[in-house]
Amino acid sequence: MRHMTRLLTSLSAAALLAIDAPAALADTAAVAPPSGSAQAATPFSYQDMIALNRLGDPQVSPDGRWVVYSVTATDVVANRRSGALYMMDLREGGEGRRLAINEGGANTARWGGDGKLYFLSGRSDTSQVWRANADGTGATQVTDLALDVNAYRLSREADKVAVSLAVFPSCADIACTVDRAKAVSDDKSTGQVYDRMFVRHWDTWADGTQNHLFVLNVDGSGDPVWVTKGFDGDTPSKPFGDEGEFTFAPDGQSVVFSARQAGQSEPWSTNFDIYRTNGLSGDGAFQNLTDDNDAWDTGPVFSPDGRTMAWRAMARPGFEADKYAIFLRDVDSGQTRQVAANWDRSADSLQWSRDGNTLYVTAADVGQTRIFAIDARNGVVTPVTGPGHVSAFAQTPSGFVFAQDTLTRPSELFVKTFLGREMPRRITDVNPSLDDKDFGEAEQFNFEGWNGETVHGYVIKPAGYVEGRKYPVAFLIHGGPQGSFGNSWSYRWNPSTYAGAGYAVVMIDFHGSTGYGQAFTDSVSQHWGDRPLEDLQKGWAAAQQRYGFLDGDKACALGASYGGYMVNWIAGNWPGEFKCLVNHDGVFDTFGMGYSTEELWFTEWEFGGTPYDNPRGYQQFNPANHVQNWRDPMLVIQGDRDYRIPTAQALSTFTALQRRGIESRLVVFPDENHWVLKPANSLQWHKEVFGWLDKYIGQAD
Please, are residues 161 and 216 in contact by the beta-carbon 8 Å criterion? Predict the structure, then answer.
């Protein structure tokens, strides 16, 4: 273990020189506060953050005139959030208007090829597909099913709709699922019986249902056809899948979907394949279009002329953080080829251009998430957007509408032409109150980390920064470990809330982070405790060397998930460096995780096999083996519905702290999962965390 002073003296001159942002990243090095914040009277706070409106899901009409988007409002007092749909005229401009269809509840708006606006609504007591005129008036019900529609996809002509319903796969029809669910509800006994995994997933115990696809005629004629009947698996996948995992074939006569065969191996398999139904008969016959790849295939999208299917695919079975490469399949011949094979970024989403010559994707890229244009013929990749995090985008006849956020602003809608070099123009302002808030200035830097390789990070000045003063530091550690703390907004780990409370912030994208090439991401697997820790130590030293306002004697390290693991690892392998620690839903015992988490493919990849085949891989970087070195005060937080990192991990952490007589506190949220989502709970979470920081590192000198 190496203390801060030793790190400062041991860093080479080259390493200290390397903390300057390279010229190629000049456009991403600094993130300025929003205009007007220099005169702001009040710093941005976590109370402000919790109350903000949340924009997302922009959808552009076929003629390019209208964009519909969602805005979720938070009622902190009532402890609830409610979403609404808004529409803006892209030709005439002006402000977005709230659509009348919201009065009965509306979400997940999608434009049909008929120019109508489709959406989901629970106004008929179950969530169903509805349709409105292009101006958002005249809502009429499209589906009338006894089960909730959890996702839907329209055919190109909008004459058919595929819906996903949670059904018992052994049932013959929807009515059977309704009857069986009622029988279960009426049964006085409560014991649950399982013969295979998953037993539980994310935050929900398995109830025997699967997500299956049904196709209906939009005009109401005929009966729903269960087109995935006989397939043993979920579409969309649980817990976070959506309609991006299924689509109609161009002729509308079959459905193409991404799914994993459940069987007995589902919890340790990432073998999602893309299947095509045998027409719309529901005969249980499926063609596997990606049978030659045992890794993850997903996101099928067809070219405008219907001749080519594009999709994203990983190469290594069992590795959820592998690079998503882009493949094309000729619909008639079945021949496939990879596009932009040498591009060392992972595609998060995929759209065809209207002329079928270009593929547009989003991808993490050195602390940003950009839109990229990929020539479908020669694979040339061109960045479309600059600094910031693009969470969603849609095409217009002249360019894009996209939702983008940064470290100092949550998502707003922007417009930009296809190839123009002009700055994107913001067209929404769903949080005008932020114009009167003071944000800290963020700067990206880099340094030599593990193996002499370049590692990036961010330093954020506190709001109201005064030159010459030193400030206590919140040292934030991201989860994953294949994740990133970059130029993006977060409602759970928001560095601007720490800056607003008077703390400087340091964040390091250590080896294993995403957006720096696949080899960089790969480097953390089976190296949880050495390479990332070395990066954190060297990054912390480099930041202090460059930024004199950082008070290294008054710092607290905080992290969640893998970040919480790293907090536990720091406690035993870098003790005394931080005045306090905060661990949210972090791993205490990596060996125990191998038997208690639900997605076993993750632990088996990260630790090199099963716990019984490779126990050394689980014990090599196990925080539980270093508790004898613990001495730093730690706040431990846990969601009791977190089945990814179960509650026993937090209880073990707290037990170790208490048994060793270390100042510690445990906060448990019985109704939260891996994330704290409810407004009142988020408020309590932040009060506890900021109270812990104030107690141990206080305010600026």
Answer: yes
Residue with tokens 């279009």: 289
Q: Name the catalytic one among 626, 642, 664, 682.
A: 642
Each residue's pLDDT tens digit, 104-148: 899 999 999 999 999 999 999 999 999 999 999 999 999 999 999
The answer to whether the CB of 504 falls within 8 A of the CB of 476 is no
Cis peptide before 646 (omega within 30 of 0): no
Bridge partners, residue 634, by sequence: 581, 664
Joined together, the tokens standing for residue 397 give 């006849």
Three-state SS at 521: helix
* Cβ atoms of 44 and 463 closer than 8 Å: yes
Gyration radius of the chain's alpha carbons: 26
Ramachandran category for residue 525: left, alpha or beta (phi over 0 → left; psi -120 to 50 → alpha): beta
Helix (H) or strand (E) holding 691: helix 679-696
Report the run of H or E that residue 110 belongs to, with start and end.
Answer: strand 107-111
Distances (CA, A) of 528 to 56, 364, 431: 34, 22, 39
Continuous H helices in 429-528: 495-500, 518-522
Helix or strand holding residue 182 (H, E): helix 174-186
Structure letter (DSSP) for residue 289: T
**pLDDT on residue 26:** 35
Tell me how far apart the alpha carbons of residues 563 and 498 are, in angstroms, rounded to a whole number: 17
Is 423 strand, coil or helix? Answer: coil
Q: Which residue has the tokens 């401009």?
A: 93
Overall pTM surpassing 0.85 (yes/no): yes
Which residue carries 């720091």 as its tokens?
570
Choice among 389, 456, 527, 674 that is catalytic: 674
In Å, the largest CA–CA distance within the chain is 77
């088996």: which residue's tokens?
A: 604
3-state helix, strand, coil in the chain (%, to 5): 20, 30, 45
For residue 595, which amino acid is it? Y
pLDDT at 40 over 50: no
Return the exposure string of 318-343: e unless at least 16 CB atoms fall within 10 Å of the residue's CB, then b: bbebbbbbbbbbebeeeebeebbeeb
**pLDDT digits 0-9 by tens, 247-274:** 999 999 999 999 999 999 999 999 999 9
Going by the DSSP 8-state scheme, the letter that residue 22 receives in this structure is P
Only one residue has tokens 């014990």, namely: 619
Is there a contact between 161 and 154 (Cβ–Cβ < 8 Å)?
yes
Among 127, 561, 652, 682, the active-site one is 561
Per the annotation, the verdict on 674 as an active-site residue is yes
CA gap 306, 302 in Å, rounded: 6
Residue 520 token pair: 């960089």
In sequence order, what are the beta bridge partners of 325? 313
Among 293, 286, 333, residue whose Cα is nearest residue 309: 333
Q: Looking at the chain, how many residues does it have?
A: 701
Q: Which two tokens stand for residue 454?
A: 């370049």
The alpha carbon dihedral of 411, 413, 414, 417 has a sign of positive
Q: DSSP of 185-220, one letter per residue?
A: HH-S------SSS-SEETTEE--S-EEEEEEEETTS
What pLDDT is stored for residue 30 in this prediction? 64
Q: How far apart are CA 507 and CA 458, in angstroms?
A: 5
| Environment class of 640 (CB within 10 Å of its CB; exposed 0-12, middle 13-18, buried 19+) | middle
